[in-house]
Amino acid sequence: DAGVIQSPRHEVTEMGQEVTLRCKPISGHDYLFWYRQTMMRGLELLIYFNNNVPIDDSGMPEDRFSAKMPNASFSTLKIQPSEPRDSAVYFCASSIVGGRYGYTFGSGTRLTVV
Amino acid sequence: GEDVEQSLFLSVREGDSSVINCTYTDSSSTYLYWYKQEPGAGLQLLTYIFSNMDMKQDQRLTVLLNKKDKHLSLRIADTQTGDSAIYFCAEIPNYGGSQGNLIFGKGTKLSVKP
Lengths: 114, 114
Fold this sequence. Notes:
The structure holds two protein chains of two kinds. By secondary structure, chain A is mainly β. Chain A is built from no helices and eleven strands. Chain A starts with a strand and ends with a strand. Chain B has no helices and eleven strands.
């Protein structure tokens, strides 16, 4: 398996633009997580899905953020409109068995909003 | 509340042992984890320990768990320059067959001097 695949690796956009981050989890994993990493706040869980259903989105910063998982092999995180304070590295992770054996992380998308 | 604390920096000489410490607050945490993050990469699961264990050893890695003090440590024997990275402690609080969220510490940056 190629692991958790995220795209793009880097994204630079102007304030106010829409940004869409993509994730392909490991086949057979039934949990998918979106995290955000910044120097100030460390790793923050934004939202997670179980069997494509959003379970907890309490970490989503505000209504500008939305996430979908239309099928077991694809998820998106969208920011509209983007702001400079959204600049961070966004990670997707997937797991099985309730995460007992840990999560597998993608390589992340580095987002810069100018 | 849920919180995982780690010291931010550790510097060692090549060949020495490194010990990275972590404290957590949720006594019901069943699994505890150590992740490694190299520059520009995602988080890689190094090892995990179940809460009914005191110690787990895996090659150069030794994990010690003091459940009474809610203290977790990671010892790296014969530390190499390739071990330079950020190490994250993480717990899943209230794991009871249902999915919990991985709560991460802010990470300890390990620098290995030749």
